[in-house]
User: Fold these one by one.
Assistant:
Number 1:
Amino acid sequence: MLSLTATSFAQSNSEISADVRAEVEKLNKNIEQDIANKDFSSIVDLYADDATIIAPGGKKIQGRKAIAEYWYSLGTATSLKSEIIELGGNGKVVYQLGKWTVTSVKNGTEQTITSDVVIVWKKNTNYEYKIQLNSSNNAVAVNGIQSNSFEAAKN
């Protein structure tokens, strides 16, 4: 009985609707715009109160205050480009596999870092998607020079 339930769950969760896809794509575009405008509070508002960020190197950041401190520490970022590689879930909980390319200026030098990201979006009681989990690995490319990524591992 358990395997039938797990199989049914996996089958019912593999596809998401076009509306959900459009909503998650819009949320990603909002993050891109918020970085460009240095509007970190709008990014923090996208996280659930009990959300977790797992930053490169495995550092775990939990709770709204710590998440706010994390995002505000990225003040040198000038742009973020989000690439969605895969979306799945059941509409209430959606996972996103992708890449984030962040450009920042430090000491007058522009640096671009691309990382694989996994984001779990969860609908709250107001039927809004909030980030429950955001996990980034170490950079898969720095200034356009590639290293290994989970996308390469899938092939």
Number 2:
Amino acid sequence: MLVEVRGDVPGRCVGDTEVGHDVPGVDLLRVADPADEVVRGVVQATRDVLIEPNVFFGPGVAIEDGAHIMANCHMVGARIRSGARVGPFARLRPGADIGPAVHIGNFVEVKNARLEAGAKANHLAYIGDGRVGAGANVGAGTIFCNYDGVEKHFTDVGAGAFVGSNSSLVAPVKIGDGAYIGSGSVITKNVEPDALAIERSEQEQRPGWAAKFRTMMGRRKKPR
């Protein structure tokens, strides 16, 4: 059962000792630092939820059993399901549905997207208008390219898929279950289940080039 907890009184902390004044039971919310003002706004929560300092809750946020909200997160219109971990410094926008045991890490933004059980996006990613299947991994720097300047489009990442760092998934696009996306790829076509998709220029190496370049530039450099 979700219970509404308010922390919108300036300077007030919602912690083990105070929550009993508002709702039945004193184990609803646990806070990492009871001296800090933790909850700003209104949040619906079940039991055994841990919230670290400086978290903002806008309208429509719901948190289920055993979730852990780390410091400095901003959430509006999002649902965090049982056992999920969010933050620090994460942003959940309206329509974010964070599934059981999902990890959303630092500087990850989620909007109108569902992450299914056990999925991970641990660093520096934008997940907008899409789905990330159970157990999938979204690497650092990954972007769901959902907007073409006129309309929003959907990105579907299948269960167990692995999206390498610094990848751009240009919607509409579907990544099949268990597929791998090579780091640095710009994916514009659907990827079959268990396939490897890689899109980047071939690396070129020119032996001795750097030394020659430094010598040439040294000749041009004017003495101070």
Number 3:
Amino acid sequence: MPACRPPARGTITPVGGILTGSTVSPFVAEWLPRVVAEMNGRPGPRRALDLAMGEGRHAIPLVEAGFVTYGVDVAVNRLLTARRVLVERRLDVLQWAADLDTYPLPARRFDLLFCTRFLLRARWDDLKRSVRPGGFVMYETFTTGQVAPGCGPSALRQAQGRPEPCRGTAGSGPSRAMSRGGPSSPDHLLHPGELARAFDGWIVLHSEEVESPAAMARLVARKPGA
């Protein structure tokens, strides 16, 4: 992992930096300043890990909030897209490409574990260990409510005779789950209550699950300790 560099400033500026065609999640816009406020007064640089950063729509507000920001993603083309915009804005994010299913994450390294629209349930323990005591997690991703009920593989297997294809996204046949957008595979969708259970024992600042406009679970929590 690249060496840390000190942040340019230690307090947040308005969350307004976004990539072309992208928007900052309202959840992030509301809760990132609150997390920063909780950290104010703590010594040393603050490190944030933007997990599966994609094209970096949230890397900009993380840097602007004063975090030494690390961004990891498996897709090199997305990292390069993010890099072009970050360079134009003279913002520094320490990026690297890796398969998060297997890539080893350092323990007790980050003050903020940050993730939107990505699920790595097989590595909950590794993700939690990567956060320093007293550090935070901000997590937002899709739940199973995003898939239309009655569609998808399990429902179709139970149907009698020849099932009628699910209506909705073009090209979704009887072997695919119907989604309102985002992933449709159950491997990439949170079960009800799963996110909160994954961080059981942490101090919860915010936890919710919503069904519209998209089915999402959101969590802000602090790891017990210093």
Number 4:
Amino acid sequence: MRCVFASLLGGLKSLAKVRACDNRIGMRESWPHAPPHYFTPHGTCIITAATLHRAPLFGSGAKLDLLRDTTFELARNYALTLQAWAFFSNHYHLVVSFENTAKAHRDLVRHLHRELAIRLNRIDDTPGRRVMYEFWDTRLTFEKSWLARLNYVHQNAVKHGSVRVANQYAWCSAAWFESNARSGFVKSVYSFKTDRIKVPDDFRAGRDNSPGSKKRCEDASQS
């Protein structure tokens, strides 16, 4: 009996590893471009957005896939460069370069939120429901600010307690970044402290979600 149990336990552990690997491989294939290793001071932003009332509307793996894949689809259509991402049940973070497109980053956000509402409401059979409510955007104009915020977004799943190691979370960019960037650049990004970064990231239900709380685009400091 002990041998059977040990064999079964070993099989479950192996299956979990395979699924984690499959998630990381799928993530790399979904966004085929390599991470940038240099800073472009014109047109790089960090964007954070939340659902209405912080409701966990993307509270399943399939719905997180929808959030991630819809974002990737529109980013490709807009010819944008995604540099880091983290998707959760009620919010997301992106670091995006708009250097190669004439579109404003708010055009992407508004289009993305419309498309997310259409697709999610079709799944939930809730026509007309408001899904995304507000967003914050900060233009990154200093290289150190950019590097620190790349690290912040790559590691955000750990901050929220979703995983112990960021590259095990299927809906963030850590595994893609570590697999595709030069090892020296990965170490450099991960060495930047993030504890002093001011990014909206408390999305517990019941927190302030009023129109007056929305933060407009501004230049980031060198912190």
